[in-house]
Amino acid sequence: MQIQTNRNQRELKSHGDVSFPILVSHESITSYELNTFSWHWHPEIELTLIEEGEMMYQINGHEMHVQKGDLLFSNCNALHSGHSIDGRACYYWSITFDSKLIYGFENSLIQTKYVDAVVSAKEFSSILFDGSESWHHDLKELVCELISLSSDKSDFYEIKIQMQLTKIWLMLLEHRTSFSLNENALNPKTSARLKAILSFIHENFEKKISLDDIANSVHLCKSECCRFFKKHMQESLFDYLLRYRIEQSIPYLRNPEYSITEAALCCGFSDAGYYSRMFKRYTGMSPRDYRIGLFPDYDR
To bridge 66 with a disulfide, which of 1, 15, 70, 256 should be the other Cys (CB 3.0-4.6 Å)? Predict the structure, then answer.
């Protein structure tokens, strides 16, 4: 599976609904193609609690090694992705919620005084709670209680979840002075340009596009575009395009109506041999071996 986004990389998955905008889900990094969830963003805030294992998490230009027991705060509209380390499993809880659950209605005192102060602050772009301070444990306990409330769905659980979120928010505010400003956090202009680059790739990956084409789409020269992308994404532009094409080819391999050559052509590869070599580089197996694992009688 893979995260579904629109042309601007906004995640399409519903995080609850307008009547109760929160989603608590148990996730595994190895359930995603190439053990990676793709770059995306959403207007909701996200809390990620690592239950078991470890992975690399990139958010707003900052890469973090997160492991069992770590809690990550990701602010609204943050561009983020994650990938496994050496293909190892990592299980985690994701709590994605609209801040309206805390402040109630637009322009309320709670919103203007206590919520906007967080969602607009650069030091709240992303925060890793790794147990280095004593109060991190208390925060994680609140998050674990919220997960239990969502799982059990006992009487009045919606009210209890709302109260739990408010407790979490209050604890963040009370310890605000302990958060250091992340100088590497993306400013809105940089974030918008990265989203534009990703949008162009995701809309045109099946075509014969070049690095020059990608650079021209955001009005940069090729060298500057490549430097800009590598600086903020910790991956070269060419490698990202290649990996994304491999990732997008997997649904075709899972469909026996498509040959391996057709899967390659549908995802921007003009040569099936090159596609097979790149597929093996990223997955550790050839497209044919991958398909045989799904369809033992496959002979094409």
Answer: 70
